[in-house]
Amino acid sequence: MIILGKQRIGILGMGTVATGFCKTYFMNKSIIDSKMDPSLEITKVLVKDIDKKRDVDLPHSIYVDDFDDFNLEEFEIIIELIGGVNPAFEYIKKSLESGCNVITANKELMAKRGSELLEIAKNNNVLIRYEASVGGGIPLISTINDAMVSNEIIRMMGILNGTTNYILTKMTKEKIGFETALTQAKELGFAEADPTADVDGFDASYKLAILSKDAFGVIPKPEEILKQGIRKISIEDIEYGLELGYKIKLLAIGEKSNEHVELSVEPTLIPIDHPVASVNNEYNALFIEGNSVGEIMLYGKGAGAMPTGSAVLSDAIDIIKKKKDYMGHVKAENIIVKNIGLSAYYVRMEVLDKPGVLGKIAVAFGDYGISLDSVVQRARGGRVAPLVFITHEIERAKLNDALNTIENKEYVTEIQSIIKVVK
Ligand SMILES: NC(=O)c1ccc[n+]([C@@H]2O[C@H](COP(=O)([O-])OP(=O)(O)OC[C@H]3O[C@@H](n4cnc5c(N)ncnc54)[C@H](OP(=O)(O)O)[C@@H]3O)[C@@H](O)[C@H]2O)c1
Question: Which H or E run includes 268?
């Protein structure tokens, strides 16, 4: 490895995050250099198009469009910011095997193949850091691994996707439907042209998978996380929720018991006065319950060039200053991922507008051991009327059984929504 009084850094990609990384470094260079020796030097950048105009002041000569042009022996750190699983996985693997430390912001890669990469890093005595992959500029991974290492984490609950939080905030405040809010989010650059990864919950579930590794020592397969997006959330649900004292948020929840971990990403009703309910627009937050510290919440921008770039830079400084692995949390070999879904639930249905229907439905729920916490009944003066319930805690499978029976009753025309409730 060549050490010239500087730590040589190679960057794969020069898009949004890489530009934010460079700008943060140049903006804060004197502070950063005063805190560590040796300092950083960006010596090579891989891009697709070397002639594209870039919003960052680096010499044109350092850009290449072929990964084989990287002489990996020369680098202390390779920063992967191209995104996607391939070819990012191969590039990171080769870098680790060549003795480079690696930093990535790639949640999809870390969720799907992170355990392989961590093993390769360990076998080659180098580090892989991924702070920016969850929560952008908010120090979630380092808080869990370092500041909270003396605690057992019992539960975490987060808003981990800014796009869906922006859409739900708009729907709640302006009483507009999902499609209108999505269009506005696209116009303002808060949603991609293809919003699937965000609105269908993939992005948040990748991030929850990464957090589960660090908080619980359990690395889930992507399909083990119960996942539901926000496309079906209607204005009616938002308004009934508010009337009952709740906001709807896309919550990523991880909860640990002795035998298993529950991991879910789904729209959830949360009390209006809960700190997580006050996280609006594109902001992210993670609410963590430790067995000693109690409840803490980390809040900030979960994406964007500068916040995410600053998290990548913190990883780089950490590698150079400490050169140690995270202590992490105990690897929980015998704990499995299992979603029982013991929770309260909100149920909205359409029923015949006749006397006695509410009582019959309460009895039908009772037959399955389900008791009701709150009910909203609206007479509309027509053939049908809406009926909204919040149940007491019940396993999701039991609720489904009850609703399968109730759906077939002649006085129920449609079950319209089932949403988890956090109390
Ligand atoms: N954007 C955010 O706010 C944010 C937040 C948290 C995490 N992340 C993660 O950070 C990573 C980077 O995101 P980004 O938004 O910065 O992406 P981006 O703006 O699309 O930039 C990607 C960069 O990688 C280069 N690239 C892509 N594929 C390549 C390939 N096969 N070979 C060589 N170069 C390639 C592109 O080159 P050209 O410029 O020549 O096209 C571009 O410079 C992703 O994993 C993303 O999930 C992003």
Answer: strand 260-271
Return the H-helix or E-strand segment holding 168. Answer: helix 162-174
Arch. (CATH architecture) of 140-301+328-337: 2-Layer Sandwich (3.30)
From the number of C-beta atoms within 10 Å of its C-beta (0-12, 13-18, 19+), residue 182 rates as buried
Mind listing the pLDDT tens digit for each residue in 103-162? 999 999 999 999 999 999 999 999 999 999 999 999 999 999 999 989 999 999 999 999
State which of 48, 79, 108, 196 you would mutate to test the pocket of ligand 1, scoring each by most atoms of that ligand within 8 A of its C-beta.
48
82 lines ligand 1 (CB under 6 A): yes
Give me the architecture of the 6-129 domain, per CATH. Answer: 3-Layer(aba) Sandwich (3.40)
State both tokens at 146. Answer: 């370092």
Residue 48 CA: nearest ligand 1 atom is 40
Class of domain 344-421: alpha beta
Could you identify the atom of ligand 1 that is nearest to the CA of residue 303? 3
pLDDT tens readout for residues 254-289: 999 888 999 999 999 999 999 999 999 999 999 999
Q: For the chain, what are the domain ranges?
A: 6-129, 140-301+328-337, 344-421
- Among the residues of 53-101, which ranges form H helices? 88-97
In whole angstroms, give the CA distance from residue 295 to residue 223: 29
Which residue of the set 207, 247, 301, 420 is catalytic? 207
Most ligand 1 atoms within 8 A of CB, residue of 82, 85, 202, 312 to mutate: 82
Q: Would you say the pTM of this structure is higher than 0.85?
A: yes
